[in-house]
Amino acid sequence: MNTTANANDGLFFNEALFGLAVLAFVVLLVIEKTKPYREFPAKIYKESFVTNTTAFLVNNLILTALRASSLFLIAQQFSSFGLLSGLDNGPLKWLLAFAFFDLAIYIWHYASHKYEYLWRFHKIHHSDKCFNVSTGFRFHVFDLLLEIVYKCVFVVVIGVDAYLVLSIEIIELFFIFFHHGNIRVPNEAAISQVIITPSLHRTHHSTLRSEHDSNYGIVLAFWDRIFGTRKELIPANVGLDLIEAENFIQLFSLAFITERKIRQLFSWIPKGKK
To answer: How far apart are CA 148 and CA 146, in angstroms?
Structure first.
């Protein structure tokens, strides 16, 4: 077996998938600019887009400098010991790997909302006051680093090649762009029974915690049904009440300021007499 040829074929396939994901981002960007689901003030949209794309560029520079991708290479060395390692590469293994991966990300997403030490980084993603396709770039670098380690554990436990995981990740990236799109989707009610759509994920970005602690799925919609975390409603507002960032520096710093501390500071401010 020519492992070098297989690796090159896998790399080419992943590059093609990534190219399609980038194309999808551009198409969604054009659609939401011409026919947006919800109109946001131009100033808020511009701040959101600039901050989100800056976060994407800086985060990738940091991850490259830290050689975070090498974690996947380390995990790949142990991929032959996992649950699916005994299956031949083929449609069955690919489908099972995709389903397990999507479930693993659902669990990680749920944990990121439930546990304060994870939420302090994940809330950066929810701080966007303008729900749009670029919101899919809005993540704290520590959130990404922790998730990479988690995914490496997944590779070891499940037992799939890192190239397959990378392919699944690119597919998930496409869906992240899709369900953050400020767009209207035809027959969305029916489609959302199978996959996560913008209407479901828009609820996940609600300002109200009782509403945004829901719809944790990335691709498949039935995890939220199985675990009772699905909500179908139209949020009045998106973003977070006490958390706001107008640029990347503020965005990075917000992870170290908890809502509890902000409320505590507000409680120290004397209230006027009624």
So the answer is: 5
- 187-to-91, 171, 184, 191, 242 alpha-carbon distances in Å: 29, 22, 9, 6, 35
User: Does residue 155 contact residue 76 with C-beta atoms inside 8 Å?
Assistant: yes
Q: Work out the burial of residue 101: count CB atoms within 10 Å of its CB; fewer than 13 is exposed, 13-18 middle, 19 or more buried.
A: buried
Going by pLDDT thresholds of 50, 70 and 90, the confidence category of residue 12 is: low
Residue with tokens 């995914």: 151
pLDDT of residue 222: 95
pLDDT of 73 higher than 80? no
Q: Which two tokens stand for residue 246?
A: 């107008």
Kindly report the three-state secondary structure assignment for every residue of 172-238: HHHHHHHHHCCCCCCCHHHHCCCECCHHHHHHHCECCHHHHCCCCCCCECHHHHHCCCCCCCCCCCE
Distance CA 38, CA 57 (A): 27
